[in-house]
Fold these 4 entries.
Entry 1:
Amino acid sequence: MRCALAAIVLAGAAFAPSALAQAPRAQMSFDQCGVHARAMHERGWPGGTAALMRASTAAELSPERVEARLVALHAELAITRAQERRWADFAQALRSDAGEMQAMMRAQGGSAAPSASLPERLRQRHVLMQRRLHALGRIEHAVGRLYAVLSASQRARAERALEPLAC
């Protein structure tokens, strides 16, 4: 089950800028998403949607690491006072997501017995995927609201920094 969890983890707090060339979103391949995830992981930003940023341990989603990432992104995007409320909503969505994922990883840690039947393993995976889908919806909403108040240059920086969220 740990493999299944690793395959669906979205570390919403993964937002390192990527120096990699960006393909149009509609043409972004799973391989390219993996390249983004590796580059972000190497920069200390683990995570991903199924291909997007695999946090291999709950410690990678610690509140301290999430806060450090948020501080860096806030600075990179040059968030203004007028944008702070939308930023706060976005940051809280990422904090919540990281906390939920950390709790799931801790709860999961070895709980899936190898003797679990195929139907039971599929049920467990289904539940995890439903949780991730719900979290992704919250992040999508928060990103949309934040984008609505960003300038064109801030959006360009956000596109580079947050691209892996769209993989």
Note: The chain is about 60% helix and 0% strand.
Entry 2:
Amino acid sequence: MAILGMEASAGEAPITCFGVAIFREEAGMLKKAVSLATAVAFVVLASVAVCAHEKKNVKKLTKEEVPKPVIAAFEKAHPQAAVKEYEQKSWQDKVWYEVEFKDGGAVKEEKYSADGTLSGSEEKIDAKDLPEAVTKAISGSAPGAKIVKAEKETHGQAVTYEIKLEEKGKFREMKFDEKGVAVKKCETMKKGAK
């Protein structure tokens, strides 16, 4: 007897799966296909979850609401800066304070812990000022995309570049290290998103 294009061995009884009679060999192939599909679905869902977890809780603050050590550290480092805004951000039980400011013509952000310790900075830069390795990586991973925004981020000794790209009316962000290695490839945004 042939079922689903396979011949039955003498005395082999078919197994019913979703109302279809199959033999052990077919059942094994079906089991492998289901396992592979499950693994692919898990990877896709995990990637979406990682990108979703990157969302932070953000609260705009007045200068008076920012901890005094943060204000003192910032004003000591940048006495002539014009502050644009203060924010409190939290993610995974960590809280920090960001100060966005303009100093010497450049727009920057600095991140501080509540005790006034500087933990990182971001500076908007022109696309032409990106390292060559980063521009090559962008060309290779997103050919035809236009760089809309570029930021240089510093955390301790680590320097990364966060890039906002526009491609066919859609925006996405990517992050690269100085050698052009992608360290973040997610967060697609709608047209017009900041």
Note: The two ends are 64 Å apart (CA to CA).
Entry 3:
Amino acid sequence: MRRRVGIAALAGFGVIGTAGLIGLTAGPAAAAAAASPHITTAVAPAITTQPMNQTVAAGQSATFTAAASGTPTPFVQWMVSTDGGRHFNIVSGATTDTLVIAAVTVGQNGNQYQAIFSNVQGVTVTNSATLTVSNAPQGHGYWLVAADGGIFSFGDAQFFGSSGSLHLNKPIVGMAGTPDGRGYWLVASDGGIFAFGDAGYFGSTGNLRLNQPVVGMATTPDGHGYWLVASDGGVFAFGDAHLYGSGLYGPPLDNNPIVDIVANPDGRGYWLLEGTLGGGLRSFGDVGIFQYNGTTFPTYPIVDMATTPDGQGFWQVASDGSIFNFGDAAYLGPTSPLPLLQPVVGMSVTVDGKGYWLVASDGGVFAFGSAGFFGSTGALHLNQPVVGMAAT
């Protein structure tokens, strides 16, 4: 015997939408139980424990618990919404009363969770519980880093230290912020790593002989690992960062050196960006290749790239400040109509993915969309040029 509620079913279970149940079918375990001669009276599920809102720090675990009575014993399936409760999707494998989310990331801040209980007599759904990731960055600040390791903090970005007073074997070429905005890493062209604030040190290539210099870094979602990339496409993984491949074993780069590595927000893949007019990409892991949404093409080399929060699109920026958007990345404006004193060298994206900043080598900052302007070093005399930025 099978009872269906709504208009659609998914894998014998279903999906929850804005209007409540839009499709649910009792699972086979419940149907088998109903056929048992020991079951005399079927009772629809009734919620006995509602899941509670949870607030945890980035990198910690979050636990949601729900329970329901009913005969036969209800089957449970957890669901998650990433759009404020408008749509819910199945959490794969989450079929017990307790849902544990290990090592939460700031990208999960605001997610809502609910449990569906079903048997042959009916279906019921718990209230939604919200996950709040404490110290989630709000995108109200950013850091700039110069080649000598000098750090310049603006907005709510705090200063945690720099390598500006150190004797560096090689210049700094990039930086990355921690998920909670309370620390950052600097990377030098020999792969040396400098960690400040709550950024952990997980290793470096500073004591290795590299064929080509390191040019960029990217971090895992929980901030417990990072990747480094060299201009020949060599990738080095540290901490909980997994190696998904490198440019060393693909088609030759010829005169198209790698200029950066950009990680998918889920940490299960990355792109290697070629510093060419075409902004060529080497893709590894679960990252996608998305359609270009524009009609113009670069006339200056691509220098950096950033992904949207859901990993379903990205922007590329050329040294003249031109922007090229792919997938679900919105075009919010370039600096290219403006006369630049120095070339653009990097970019960073807001937490909501509705804005971005561009930074030039003199520290000039250009804000678009929801990105706020919090200051720059464009009017200062710098000892060394700015080489990158990271947002809180």
Note: The radius of gyration is 25 Å.
Entry 4:
Amino acid sequence: MNQPNENEKLSVPGEPPAESADAVTDTTADKPLAKTSEETTGETNEGINGEGETGEGTTGESTTGEGKTGESTTGEGSLEPVRHFTPAAPAGAVPLLECRHLTKRYSGSMEAISDINLKVYGGRIIGLLGPNGSGKTTFIKLVCGLLHPTTGEIYINGYKPGVESKFIVSYLPDRVYLSDWMRVRQLISLFADFYPDFSTDKAYAMMSQLGINPEHKLKTLSKGTKEKVQLILTMSRNALLYLLDEPIGGVDPATRDYILNTILTNYNPGATIIISTHLISDVERILDDAIFLSNGKILIAGAADDIRAKNNKSLDELFREVFRC
């Protein structure tokens, strides 16, 4: 393996330097790129409500509960934050991700994440939606253990963020963090050494589909190709929870389609995917659930179809309405 230059440093896969980034939140069996309402009605989208209750009394009701979310905001200025996102749980299931009164403060009294409570189970694709600075990246870094909560708790499959959780979480940062001097094949070997659930065969197959030469050094690749390499490495793991921070933020529309198809076809079907983005129109068709985040608080949460039906508009249209300047 080539050695780094004098001032270059080896990066640990999935762990870029922790920063005080902008912010926060939070899935699924193989399925077509778009779901119809008939296909999703009656699945696990029942029972999501704004009061943290599950099961009895919530099935078939509004996924947001108490009229706090999912309503038109035209002329109303702002929505009252929702403190809970709790879908109906499969019998005896342990939440794949659980946050209890999660709060993160930076310097002074600034709260990047404010008293968030949520439970997420396996088999869902969740959109963590919000403008820049809403807390999406901070939330994801808290779940990964790259940041520590000021108050509150996080559990990943019953574990607090740490060694055990890293075995079941696959994380894609919002920037390129891999060492430029390494060749693609060396990066594949590095991930295979770090993660027992990493599939070398899957990684090479996806590289081949994209025409990426494993002998090329990362520094010789374009920005878009570097991001594809990182995505392939992330999705080649057989993880339970995939955290993708702005995976389509800096690429062209054709590449976005490839990335979304890669996400859908190359992950553990029983796992959950949380996609952080502000590009709602591109990801809306693949989402099971949506969480609207603003200033570290959950404004709207529920099954995507239910939110659309309640507001009689797409998630993208609702997003533009809620967050318009």
Note: Residues 172 and 244 are 5 Å apart (CA to CA).
